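Changelog-adjacent note: as of this version, every example in the card shows the full chain rather than a window. The one below runs 176 residues end to end.
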Amino acid sequence: MLRRLLLLVLLGLSFAVRAAPATVDWLDLLPPEDYQAMLDMPEIDHGSGLDSEGDFTRSLRQQDDSLPEVMYSTRVVSAYDGQSIRIGGYPVPLETDAQGRYLSFFLVPYAGACIHVPPPPPNQIILVSYPDGIAIDDIYQPFWVQGTLHVTRTSNDLAEASYALSAERVWLYDGQ
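Full-length structure tokens:
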């Protein structure tokens, strides 16, 4: 009887460990050649700074041909396809429901990517689909997003993304 109970507990723990999403850093989404190119890149001016005014009238699409090729990269890390992850980032709102909650948004690694240039490369932009919706009151407030990551290219008028994430949970970034 004790053996059966111990076996059930171990199976339960095994499932719980597998079910926990991996916390992914933005740099993890870069293939090795892009990671090294980012490390070797000179400092890039991001415009007027985070305190400057802005709105969503500018596109995340690259507009500066003088930038290094890595800033346009769509190369991905295919090992993340279908993986359950959690990643922190900043939202660029796209689609809302009738209550004004965002059902889809781009997630980017730094604040103001929809306003300041240059925007991140496509392999540093994730299209997030979140059917439950979430209020986004401040694009300078980071969020955690948890769900299944897919390696798939998405393109619209605003941006091109190399990843998409089907979110199960979205919450304000709490540092942990």
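Structural remarks: The radius of gyration is 18 Å.
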